[in-house]
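Case study B.
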Amino acid sequence: MDSLPEVQSRFAAALRGDPGAAAADVTGDGPESAGRLAIYRNNARAMFDGALERTYPVLRRRVGEDYFRQLAHGYRQLHPSRSGDLHWVGEHFSRYLAATEAGTGYEWLAELAELEWACECAFVAARESPVDPQALTGLMPDDLARARLQLQPSLHCVASSFPVLEVWRANQADGDGHAVDPSRGGQCALVSCGADGLELAEVSRTALEFARLLQSGTPLGAAVEASGLDLAELPDVLSLLFSRGLVIGVTAPAMEHHPT
Amino acid sequence: MSSSPTANSSGPVPAGAGIGLRSAHHEALVRERPAVGWIEVHTENYFHDGGPHLAALEKARELYPLSLHGVGMGLGSAGPIDRSHLARVARAVERFAPALVSEHACWGSQDGEHFNDLLPLPYTEEAALHLAARVREVQDVLGRQILIENLSCYLEFSSSRLNECEFLSAVVEHSGCGLLLDVNNAYVNSVNVGLDAHAFIDGLPAAAVQEIHLAGHARRQVGERTILLDDHGSRVPEPVWRLYERALRRFGAVPTLIEWDTHLPQLDVLADEAARAQRRLDDVHGLAA
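Model:
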């Protein structure tokens, strides 16, 4: 009698598309056992496709059901599920689309997928208690420049060359699904999740870079300088970060503990 | 929510009727507070570090006793147990302190690829001992007993030497787990693979059965045969209710869950279905009184 690993290996081959692999392990005549195995093969595909569809609802809506299934099929060949938790099956979809859609005129699908994956990650991330903007008041200018702002772990900074944020907005439940003019150019978005759900804010490219630098621990002054953020824009960007509860800590030199 | 605080227990699951809670019903459950005895969720849907769904379950568990029902461990897989997945289950158990924890008598992955389905095992002594060892491993990590659910099947393995009842009994004997009896699965298997559902219910170790699942199923034609698909997408059909009544006579009043995963209706439909189960449970209580 064959061992459990052998039986499961042949069953897995049948699930991957070789219907004859496990036929001899199953009772019943050939056509019937093939039909029964096909139920499992279809289930596995449906579970994968369904998870991908739940992660990329806007992309699914834009390309239609048939093409989305084609994309999911090709993606699954290269990136089968590696976890019993279906949530992560879409992790590589943006990179897959960047490769498969290159030169087709649909390169923007990869950017849309990157935005939707950022939404997915933000939606399930931890949310720390935000700090009040008062944390910055009272700091001397030098200390302010050297202050480090810790941002929510759920914050994702997404930049695109195609207006995918507008595509995303137009295809929400309350959106009209309007066609987006690609000549509008790229967009930058801060993606996070508040108590009531996802929050997407469009920001300038320099503001996005500024936020990325803050995320990486760069002090405020150095982040302004390195990002090229116009100082006139700084109050608005800080106001956005604080008002959305995206700042969870401020560390200024004066607050740091210095051993004596 | 950045840490995984240890919660107080959500309270014991009563020997009454509960409902499977899906995210589409999070808000309605808290708003409407339907008269159901308890709730059950899929463990994997609450693996994350934070987010609205986790917050919603925190609220829900304050209102109802909670059961965590895993669908992703694939405990019968021949390859190594997925320790990172088990660690996430342990974290969810610590976070939500559920009254019941359950998984399935199935496998789900091979050579690192997960099929994310509840795949059937051949009913052999080898498979039973393998599954029992894995169940023991999970119970050791969680520090508690888990329940194992009988599977719906669309085929039988020619290598099976035990019947399903003998297989599950062996898993119970060698692991010390409890059983979650899915009555719909037993009925589905009676049609799909000729299981004697009455003998199955009559033969299970009665003391091990601590939870019952009820659900609807769909029909599909495979060649000349009609196959029942365990799709959890409709009301509990009459033959399943009759089998459930037999199970209640055998096992007494056992916590019973209405599962509904596809074609999800409004919450009040689930509550109504739970009320039907509750009436049958009340009849059993009446007989016992």
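Residues 123 and 163 of chain B are 6 Å apart (CA to CA). The remaining cases will be described in the next quarterly update.
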